[in-house]
Amino acid sequence: MFQPQIQKTTTRTFFGMAELIYHSIVRDVRKTHSNAVVGLLMNMMQTVVFVLTFYAMFFFLGMRGAAIRGDFLLYIMSGIFLFMCHTKAVSAVVGSEGPASAMMQHAPMNTVISITAAAVSSLYLQLLSLFFVLFIYHVAVTPVVIDQPIGALAMLLVAWLSGVGVGMIFLAMKPWAPDAVKLLVSIYSRASMIASGKMFVANSLPSSMLVLFDWNPLFHTIDQARGYIFLHYNPHFSSPTYPFYVAIALVLLGLMGEFYTRKSASISWGASR
Question: N or C, which terminus of the chain has less Cβ within 10 Å?
């Protein structure tokens, strides 16, 4: 006789949690700028600057021959988009509200909602930027042709998920050593500029160089995404499942670390800093 009441309470709790996550996402999106449109334009400009910088570097260094046969600018954007989605997710999750934050004093707010909102808002901004940049390129320059768009989008989501996992590891460490974590996040973001392999094609790398990038999940997602984007590229030295499994493992480890940190957290941690 109590079953309908339990189901009604569970449904109400679920929708209440979803509403709270939604408002937290809106708050995170508006953190970059009070005007959401301006915030999106700033994110788009950052992506465009990255693309133009790498285009100029490839052009002046004569590295265009190492690219995949097809649209050269789309080849550059495929690496930039996944790299940005990954690193932005890391930064967003690390910057989310921690267990000692004043926001946690407002029930039913908790760290899970804060992390989810930060991660989803990061993905939202990156997807909007991606679609707008591709639309402008499609209309103003040349038609964009993606061989398997669903597979390419899946690799983008895996790159984002792995960024969430890395960010959660750093987030669990952050209350214990905030300055060290800030430095580690900066080092990781800059190291990913090279270690992600967005400037290379895995099929063209010798085995001696391949081992330098093979450990990185982002390297696999970028290479696999290019296999889905370009008709004439078939990745042989990367895996679509490896980055997914690594991302799941990182998220689980981050959740365990965050749970332990939350139980030990104290508002007075930052009093002496």
Answer: N
